[in-house]
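Next up, a specimen:

>
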Amino acid sequence: MESRQSELNSAFLQIIRSREKVLSRDVLQGYVEDFLTKKEIYLESDRRFGAPQYFFDRTSLAQKADQFDAACSRHLDRYQIFYAMKSNSFRRIIDHITSCGMGLDVSSGHELSMALATGCQKIIFSGPGKTDEELGLAISHPQQVVLLMDSPGELSRLAKLVGQRVRSKGEIRVGIRVQNVQGGIWNKFGIPLFDVTKTFINALSIKGIDPCGIQFHTSWNLNPAAQVKMIDQIGSYIVRKMPEDISRRLKFIDIGGGFWPEHGEWLNAQNTDKGTLLAHVKPAFKFNKTHYIREARPIDYFLKKISWAISRPGNPLQGLEVWMEPGRWISTPVMHILLKVIDKKGSRIVITDGGINIMGWERPLTEFIPIINLSQPGLKELSTMVFGSLCTPHDVWGRSFFGTGIKVGDVLLVPDQGAYTYSLRQSFIKAKCRVVQYDGNCLEEVERQEY
């Protein structure tokens, strides 16, 4: 009991002493100003197709995919990129990714079926709790799919399914997923490092299976420290505990995704560690309008440090092909949300025509997302509660907007909402909204609104 109290006291003091970095006004205004340069395109999309809508910026997708690939090529000799479909599964994103020669990272049979339908030739199937039907679908496409084993039990079920089904088409390639350094609820994923050799030996005893790689995944990486730490731990383990006849079979090291977009994580005062604590202690506390940033390192810095860790003298991971699973980093800026103000209550409350079912979760309650009034543009941030039209008080888009004023009929932009929104959207009270594509020249409705 005393030990637990000591831990709580230590955590409390750590939060109290922490210093969050303030998001500068210049950075924030520059961010808003950049979107205002494209104001007429967004307004034209609203005039032609209406709101709410996802505005799919295909040019941004091409730029981000190229940028990630270029960073890899500068720092790694041999690599493969597998876009994480879960971050945004919109078919036109998937089609572009595969046309670039990248692979797809899928986490379910549903996603695997979508990936196969595109004709993608490089697919990795990760995730826990794969059903026999999902495993069966994977092993029926051994030339395209690499299975990442999440547990010894999953490997045992795979062994029962292989048989003649695979031998007639070729071996199914398998990687072993390792539990990461984050611990806690993240232990849901993967196999403890000390059990990896045993799992490889078991896999080698199964005809039709080719165990040839190791995967790990760390998440929410603002910098590459967690990835470097895992690379060091896995390399050390292989040297100390893995027989050479097994380590020689390794063809790839998959470092997963978790790369945070370069603009960092933006928070309202109440979303910081101190703010969260204060909100629990005093729920009625009125927070100011200051915003904070948890800074992220550029993707070149990530790849430089990852390459350095893998290439260090004596690291047995040298020479392996490096696989990566970017999702959020690529998809964040490829979709924006357009809303229209349909009601105003007093001077400080507006209701929009789109609810956060478009996002699929109450994301604006946990981070700061700027809202830009395209109809009355300006760089000043004004305090106004911006609600959606769902029948729930948690349907909040934000507590402020950028502009000179706000009225019924104004068109609002919620920028950079391509990651974990379209894939999480739901028909809760309101229908799923349309998708409009912009290719740099033309606007086109490419997915109709559901009713």
